[in-house]
């Protein structure tokens, strides 16, 4: 199974613009079941959670409202989450994340 991380989207289900809609459609209309999507979702609350959306592992990333720098901080935190998740699971990512998500 291939694990694909998507960062830069505000999250799914889509509530914003084109990229979020693209990510939502990518997940909802997934054909190849040998792909596991992992999507970073921006939230302003500190009570983050992870959840499953049409088979995609979604992880909320808390980002304070700091103006224009908010997008940069979100991207950095999302990339950090992606790398940490990969390192923690060392090759058996899809199964390990599925068990944690539910």
What does this structure look like?
This protein has 102 residues and is α/β, with parallel strands linked by helices. Helix content is 40%, strand content 25%. It has 3 helices and 4 strands; from the N terminus they run βαβββαα. The chain has a 4-stranded mixed β-sheet, sandwiched between helices. β3 (50-53) and β4 form a beta hairpin. The mean pLDDT is 85.
Features of the shown structure:
alpha/beta; 40% helix; 102 residues
Shape: globular
Q: Would you tell me the overall average pLDDT?
A: 85
Termini separation:
19 Å
Give the ordered list of helices and strands.
EHEEEHH
Q: Which residue ranges are poorly predicted, with pLDDT under 50 across at least 5 consecutive positions?
A: none
Assembly state (oligomeric):
single chain
Protein structure class: alpha/beta
Beta content: 15-25%
Entry summary:
By secondary structure, this protein is of the alpha/beta class. It has 3 helices and 4 strands.
Question: Could you outline the blueprint of secondary structure elements for this entry?
Answer:
Blueprint: E1 2-6, H1 18-28, E2 35-43, E3 50-53, E4 56-62, H2 69-89, H3 93-101
Parallel strand pairs: 1-2, 2-4
Antiparallel strand pairs: 3-4
